[in-house]
């Protein structure tokens, strides 16, 4: 469902993207080309800052927002999802937040007030809150990363991690075409 926020902003969805009919996009949301937005995802840009301003939420080209993902933002802060990035099932991305290109955010992970570098992998059930992760960092499952975390203790993304992330992105890109082809057939 595509709908306006209380300020009259309407999402802009590239014609080549696929948004599942059960997903909700509300407000200043920009969905770029060949994006897959899965069932029951919610992307809601409807809060403003103290001056009444709101930054957009941008979903970069060739990215995928999987089933049950929630993307929202505090006080109109920006959320940017880079190109070829995967946000896996039931993850929460709460702005202000930037997720770099070709990143992978695992099932049930939570991102808040952070920057995730290009090619980074945040595995399942992890939390990144209030800090910036450089490019190609790896966050293990169930790990909590915050301002006091010594980033030198984190591993770098391995070749296998990158291959997994690329495979997830490629698989979801192929779903865009398939679902667009059949979207009005039932």
UniProtKB/TrEMBL annotation:
<protein>
    <submittedName>
        <fullName>Carbonate dehydratase</fullName>
    </submittedName>
</protein>
<dbReference type="InterPro" id="IPR047223">
    <property type="entry name" value="CA_gamma_LbH"/>
</dbReference>
<dbReference type="InterPro" id="IPR011004">
    <property type="entry name" value="Trimer_LpxA-like_sf"/>
</dbReference>
<dbReference type="InterPro" id="IPR052265">
    <property type="entry name" value="Gamma-CA"/>
</dbReference>
<comment type="similarity">
    <text>Belongs to the gamma-class carbonic anhydrase family.</text>
</comment>
